[in-house]
Structures are given as C-alpha cells and as structure tokens.
Specification:
It is a single chain. This protein is an all-alpha fold. The protein has 3 domains: 2-44, no CATH class; 48-275, Orthogonal Bundle (Hypothetical protein af1432); 282-426. It contains 21 helices and 4 strands. It has helices at 24-30, 51-63, 66-75, 78-87, 94-104, 106-125, 130-142, 152-155, 163-169, 172-181, 188-196, 217-236, 247-252, 259-269, 282-312, 320-339, 346-354, 359-390, 397-400, 403-411, 419-426; strands at 2-3, 7-8, 14-16, 43-44. It has a two-stranded antiparallel ribbon. The N and C termini lie far apart (49 Å).
Length: 433
C-alpha cells in the first residue's frame, strides 16, 4: 500500500511520508498506534479485493460448512449474491476499506462475511427486493469495521474485561459509522445498521440506548445474524453440532427481536438437519451432567443476588442509567425463568442414567440445556460489563446497589470444561465411526 498523505500519530509524530510504500509488516506494527486520522484515509492499495474475489470467498465459506451448504441449497440465488458483491465496490474507496479489513483482521473478516451471507439469505427467504438484500449484505459485512481501531489485546482478550476495556469496545459502532459516513454516497440505511447493531429493543444495548422502533430494521437483522454466527462458530461447530441446534437458544430470546425477524431466522436454521449423536460414552455423560449442574449453580448465584438488588430499587424517579440496568436485568431474568434452565434437573438426570434409558435422548436434552446456559452466561457477562462501566461514573445510590453484584461476579470462578468431556467432544461423537 502507498501513503497518499503524511501519516501522523495522535501525538503528531510523522510515521510515513506521503508517497511512502507501506508493507503489510509496517502496517501491522503501526496498526495499534493511535493516529491523528484514520489510517485508511491516507493509503491506497496496489492489490485490492475485487467483486469476484469477494464472491469467491463467500462461496468457499459456504462450501466448507455443512450447515451453510444446506441453507444455500434451498435459498441461494447466485445472481443476487453476485450483485451484492458488485454493489459494495461501487462506492469510492470502499474497496480499500474492505481490503484492509481482510488483511488486518482475517478472522473477524470471515465472521463478518458469514453474517453478510446469512443476512443476504434472510433477505431472499423473506422475498425482499434486490436493493434491500444488497443493503443487508453490505451492513452485515461492515458491521464490525470499527473494531479495526480497537486494540486486539482487548478484542481478543480471554476472560472478563475491565470497565475501561468494555467502554472502548462499545465505541466500535460509532467508529465504524463515522468511517463509512466519509464514503461518498454510502447508503444511509447501511450506515445506520452499523451504528445500531448492538442496540436492544428494551433500551439496554449500546451506543445510544435506543428502544423498539427507534432501532433501524437492518440493524436488528444484522444483530441476530451476528448472534447466530457467534454461537454457531464458537459453541456448536467445534463439537460437531449443526446450525439447527440453535433453535432453543433463539427461542429463548423471543422478546429480543421483532416477530418477523425471529421467524425468518428460525426458518433458516430449520433448513439444516438436526445433529444426532452417534456414540455415547457413559462416563463422559456422567461428567456432563455434573458440569451442567455446576453451570446452573453458577448462574443461580448471580440470579439470587440480582433478584435481591432489583427488589431494593424503587421504580419511581430512577436515574437513566439505573433504569437501563433495571430493564436489562428484567429482560435477562425473563429469559432465564421462561426457559426454566435455572431449575435443576440434576436428580432426574442421575436417575435416568441409572435406569439405562435412551442415553442418546438424555444426552441431547442435557446438551441443549448446557448450550442455553452458555448463552445466559454470555448475557450475564455483558450485563456485568455494563454495570462495571457505569458505576465509576455515577453517584446514584440505586446504581451503587449493583456493586454487590460486581464483587460477587469477580469473586466467582466460572466452571471450566472437564478434560474428559472436552476429549469426548473432540472425538466428534456426532460423526459415524
């Protein structure tokens, strides 16, 4: 890539003179450096991703994934996908932004490409016009572009984020929106989707705590597809599960999305045949019962603390931040109680193990419970991040009530996956021997 202007750090130190050739190694070494202006505004790329390259990358992702292939066979329209790939390069310099995205964050780019693909298929299954499908594809591909300006040390961190780190993560929709706003004629609806894709219908999302109809429709589609891809890639696929196994988790969040978006998403995942475990290791099944029970205890500990706090907070004249947390907890509490996953089936599972019932059916039931618990733990972690980010800035007594929760959360160790269970999953029990 070549510098089209002088590039300075945030402290006004000259990094590259105009006309300098910047290698990938140079780019990587300075990518984490705070800059006076976004890097992509002052470089041009010699070799850029072209529409055919993007189309090929989508095709490869689909071909390498059984679940995506199943969806593709039912809904795919190649000429529509080709149009989506061409459309994204009709806007000046967007080809360079996409290329930089691919070069600097290949894993994040692949995740975003999966979101774009599912958003495009969602549009086809819903019989939307080409223009609307293209908007969904573009928004899906670029929704996390702002993460290019957040340190990988934060975005790739394993474990709990600090309040300061979470506050930086929450900036990425605004950063992405501002970047794309500088692209001539970039579709307004796509920019709004990038800005709003972490908003929640109850107002508990970020960056602007929008509610209900205030959130742009494209953002809600991108949001649910982003969740689908994250859960599938991180939780299901590594242990041989298919996309259809997401159905119970999606149904847990019926209050989180408009009905048409939820039903359209369910229609996509139901295209894939459910996973069927082929081999049962009874000892591993015992271990999974214990592990799932420990996850229930872990969640219930926070559930009890937050229920007590919620009962202490008065409804009248709450400060905005306190009201947002209260609303977010009510949504999470509703998810937990409506799914029934906080009610232990531990003793029932043990009895069924001893009675030598259909262990495959039992395994499937426990596994679905475990996956739903994983989703609740993820949501609980997001709730903790919101609380820990707000408390230092607030003098509100109602908000300070949540300090008890943050102390308990930080002091409680999340159950780790037992080694025997991990080895069992690694053996791909959903495959034929």
């Amino acid at each position: 890539m070549t510098a089209t202007g002088d590039i300075y750090s945030a402290r006004k130190r000259l990094l590259f003179k105009s006309g300098s050739v910047i290698s990938i190694e140079d780019y990587e070494s300075h990518r984490k450096t705070p800059l006076l202006h976004p890097f992509e505004e002052y470089v041009t790329l010699v070799e850029k991703i072209a529409p055919n390259d993007l189309y090929q990358k989508v095709s490869e992702l689909v071909e390498d994934d059984h679940s995506l292939r199943s969806i593709d066979q039912k809904f795919a329209q190649r000429e529509v996908l080709s149009g989506c790939c061409k459309k994204i390069f009709q806007y000046p310099r967007l080809d360079e932004i996409v290329t930089l995205f691919f070069i600097s964050r290949p894993q994040l780019f692949a995740q975003s490409l999966r979101v774009a693909y599912l958003a495009y298929v969602f549009g086809i299954s819903s019989k939307y016009p080409q223009e609307k499908i293209e908007a969904l594809f573009i928004a899906g591909l670029l929704h996390d572009i702002g993460l290019l300006f957040i340190s990988p040390k934060i975005t790739n961190k394993v474990g709990k984020l600090t309040g300061e780190e979470w506050a930086k993560i929450q900036l990425h929709p605004i950063i992405g929106y501002k970047m794309l706003r500088n692209v001539d004629n970039f579709p307004l609806e796509c920019g709004r989707a990038v800005l709003d894709h972490h908003e929640c219908v109850d107002g508990s999302g970020y960056c602007r705590n929008k509610k209900g109809d205030e959130i742009h429709w494209e953002a809600l589609v991108v949001s649910i597809m982003d969740d689908v891809v994250a859960i599938y890639q991180n939780k299901l696929k590594p242990i041989g599960r298919n996309l259809s196994d997401l159905e119970p988790t999606i149904l847990m969040n019926t209050h989180g999305y408009p009905r048409d978006i939820l039903s359209g998403t369910l229609a996509l995942v139901k295209c894939v045949e459910p996973s069927v475990v082929k081999r049962i290791d009874l000892q591993s099944l015992h271990v999974m019962v214990e592990y799932t029970y420990q996850q229930q205890l872990y969640i219930n500990k926070f559930f009890d603390v937050l229920t007590t706090i919620d009962g202490q907070i008065k409804e009248i004249n709450l400060a905005k931040d306190a009201q947002l947390l209260k609303d977010a907890w009510e949504r999470l509490s509703m998810t937990i109680t409506s799914s029934g996953i906080n009610e232990s089936s531990y003793m029932e599972w043990l009895l069924r193990l001893e009675s030598e019932e259909d262990w495959i059916e039992l395994y499937t039931e426990i596994e679905f419970t475990r996956l739903m618990l994983e989703e609740v733990i993820y949501e609980m972690n997001n709730f903790y991040n919101n609380v820990s980010g707000l408390i230092p800035k607030s003098k509100n007594d109602d908000l300070n009530n949540y300090k008890v929760f943050t102390h308990v959360y930080m002091a409680t160790q999340r159950p780790t996956v037992p080694e025997m269970l991990q080895k069992y999953w690694d053996s791909h029990p959903y495959d034929e021997e």
